[in-house]
Target: Cationic amino acid transporter (Cat-1)
Amino acid sequence: MFGATSVGVGAIVGGGILALAGVAFATTGPSAILAFGLNGVIAILTALSFAEMASKFPESGGTYTFSRKVLSVESAFTVGWVVWFASIVASVLYAIGFGSFATLLLSELYSTQGSVPHWLGEPWSVPVVSLATTVGIGGLMTFRTSGGGAWINVAKVAVFSVLIIGGFWMLTGQPVSKTTAELRPFLASGWGGLVQAMGYSFIALQGFDLIAAVGGEVREPTKNIPRAMLLSLVIALLIYLPLLFVLTTVGTDGSQSIRELAASDPEAVVALAARHYLGTSGYWLVLIAAVLSMFSALQANLFAASRIALAMSRDNTLPNALSRLAAGSGSPWISVLVTTGLVCLLIQLLPDIAAAGAASSLIFLVTFAIAHWLAILVRQRSVLTPPPFRVPGYPAVPVVGGLACLALAIFQGIAVPEAGIIAVMWIAIGGVLFLSLFARRARLTDVSNIASNPELSRLRGNSPLVLVPIANPNNARAMIALADTLVPAALGRVLVQTVVVAPHDWDPLVNHRPSAQLHSVMNEILHASASLGVRCETLTTVSAEPMMEIARVAKLHQCQSVLLGLSEITPEARDTPLEGLLGQLSSDVVVLRAPKDWQLDQSQQILVPVGGRGGHDYLLTRLLSSLSREQQRQVKFLRVIPTDTLRADQKRIRKELDRTTRVNAGRVCEREVVRSNDPVKTIADRAGTAGLIILGAQRLGPRQKLFGDFTRKVALESDCPVIIISRRG
Model:
């Protein structure tokens, strides 16, 4: 908890108050104290929402991770992209702030000795110091995982404590009348000025969210992340509010108010006020506090930004290289270097740092509002596994906090239009990169994540439905088991359909055969459902045309998938009723052909023959991830090529196969290229009798045959079960 709290304290305490106290005082006068206090209330409300989600999802990535669990992959990328940018820009601001105060401190030190080096007065000195410090911190982070700067935080808090204690000591010797006079007029610009000051200064309390961004590296995260968030904010407020009170009451000489002092020199108001009541030593303390604050805030934001990039790269929404970890420390060294490089680039390129800072503030406020909304969604949808930490006063806390953040964000966008322009430009760049480079793999990874962890479907407000028409009682157990694997009944719905095939003028009292067949099928369905523990729904209809009835039910219930059973495939059957049905379905289709009494858990080995382009990647990825969720299976992708294939073509084919396996099953699978002029026999031999073959089939139109010659031959010559998949039309 100490390390996690250090991340928050390092990012919050110091830099914001030193940079923004003057702006707040100049805008609203003594009520800047109230502005920071109200911002503190909003920040605590936001931290509570963050804490609930972080206890539910104790992983690195912060707001991005929360949005990935609850929203679509496209929305999650947008959130992660802008949060990453906001942390990068915050790092730029703190890097330049460190450079400014560091050069000023060096100048003051040299001036006491009578000579100041020429280079300290050059315009390039601040950027050079900023770049050197950023590179140094980034270099250290590639070798170690810590990012809190704990001892720097202790020193920084100690310096601020001296400033506060010294101010209250001076206050005890000051007449009460002077103290009250300095606090008047309290609302110097009315309530409007107070709201303006809140909008300008809210970013001073940003930083608690960085604890969630590094949540994957916190021990006992369900307990320590909520505690660290709230503790870091409490520490910040216990420093900010007394310090602002001291600066207001004893920080001037009586000839001018704190508002007038701030208006004349907003950036130096804290140093000037400290010099008034503590003398030269107070001025030096502020410089020391500023250097320490900017350094620790830069360190914390760099640390958190690199972890956001790490989380995004693991989901393939950023390049995979960013997720590589250093062998010794486990630090994501490439992510750290890329983030550091972007910060260094922006230090040199951003023409208006103030506008960039406003953009950072605007983005953080928007993402905080989104976080409150996500907290409501997580609470509503976490039926099976509620968050360990729960927000007190729900739903008032996320609703009030979200509206407050949104209102301040709107104000920020109106007050500083450049902030909105910068934010829109960054989002546009991210959108182009996502659609052109990352979209396909990111969506496949998302499909795999949902299949591996079906609770994500419920968190996103989905209740997927798989339709399972069963006519053969021998297939009931295998079909229900596979349906439950595709869509676990606790998180989705398995709808088993039986069709009583009878003529339009059927009289059940005269013709008992359809009823007897239904009775036999239903007995097997109930027995399989009970023995497997699958709570499926059943639907029985009467129709003379069962295939049309299945298509009608699938469309009526908007089924995500339809699972069909196939007793046999004959070489002569060229236009089967099943193929006619597939031409009418718009759902994903999985066709199972399995021996009698086959059980799903018997097939430990899965063989996936591939022939080139595929076209059913999303369905294949979902199926493989679902099959491997309950038990580990050996997956092999097989490509059979003619014996006379040229060597250059073989090399190209191997690369294609590697790419296919990475897209559909990651790296946890085998791959093999076999040279043979009899691909059907090769596939059947590789599958053996204890395996499971998965074949893909395209649906290009209502008259397109599903079972081509190759599919028929593989199914006929293989003794093991075969699953044929076809993506939705």
